[in-house]
Design brief:
mainly alpha; MetI-like fold; 2 domains
């Protein structure tokens, strides 16, 4: 066998083994992920820390006693509950019916539900106030109907993602073969399997209602965001404290809904709850 020269051995020894390149690259990616995470955290935390320092801790102890605070919080909570019920009550049967009986209308329905994002809220509220009867204008529930329009794009996409993760036709045919009617199929077969999608839609609707300002202000109702803006003219520190309180409460509510939905998903074998997407479930509720 011919001897191997040093010129050939040195390049071979200088090259690292192929198996070590992967961990090094993964380590570099992990470092960059932490860098991006820290930058994003600083981007969000620094303004909150600055606002917290400006407001002071004393403002949080007195913000609950300010005039109009409790009424504004209660009104926003009522609107969030009613809007969620109406939106889900309208969108769930509609989305299921379109998926089962009219699949060709999916694109049309997607285009219709995206319109509230394209059209400015001020245009929507002016049009609603122009055609709404007087008795409805004097009611706070007009805001709930308007919020249903704003929440429609988010709710429909969350429900549509849940329906796409199911074998909807097989489930309905199996329920029909067992003698179940449409209401029974919807209540006992489809809704249990759409729990994750409904939870995601609820998260988005609640976040939308708790942060909406334009429609409420033009409709002359003092919701919590409107109260914050009005009170800012009297006491800036108290207004900042109220804004931080609203932000913290919204986070707590969203995290609580996410936690409950995730526990139910793990218990019944559904997909994971997410704010924007629905992961396909590995099993179907009701399978043997």
């Amino acid at each position: 066998m011919a001897p191997i020269s040093r010129a050939v051995i040195r390049p071979m020894m200088s090259q690292p083994p192929a198996g070590r390149r992967g961990p090094r690259r993964r380590g570099q990616l992990g470092i960059w992920r932490w860098v991006v995470l820290l930058l994003a955290g600083a981007y969000f935390i620094l303004p909150l820390a600055t606002a917290q320092r400006f407001a002071g801790l004393a403002a949080f102890s007195t913000v609950f006693t300010q005039p109009g605070f409790g009424a504004a919080i209660w009104l926003s909570a009522q609107l969030a509950i009613v809007t969620t019920v109406i939106t889900l009550g309208l969108m769930v049967p509609t989305a299921i019916y379109v998926h089962l009986r009219m699949p060709r209308l999916k694109r049309l329905l997607e285009g219709i539900t995206i319109l509230p994002i394209v059209i400015p809220p001020i245009v929507l509220i002016l049009g609603v106030l122009d055609v709404a009867p007087l008795w409805l204008k004097a009611s706070q529930w007009l805001l709930s109907l308007e919020y249903v329009i704003l929440a429609m794009p988010f709710a429909y996409r969350a429900i549509d993602a849940g329906l796409r993760a199911l074998d909807l036709k097989t489930l309905t045919e199996a329920a029909s073969s067992l003698g179940a009617g449409w209401v029974t199929t919807l209540w006992r077969v489809l809704l249990p399997n759409l729990g994750t999608a409904l939870m995601s839609a609820t998260i988005l609707i609640v976040a939308l209602v708790l942060g909406e300002f334009t429609m409420a202000s033009l409709d002359l109702w003092v919701t919590f965001p409107v109260w914050i803006v009005q009170f800012d003219q009297l006491n800036a520190q108290m207004s900042v404290a109220a804004s931080l309180f609203a932000l913290y409460v919204t986070w707590v509510v969203l995290m609580a809904i996410t936690l409950v939905g995730t526990r139910q998903a793990r218990r019944f074998g559904r997909g994971e709850v997410s704010l924007f997407t629905v992961t396909a479930n590995s099993t179907t509720v009701g399978e043997s």
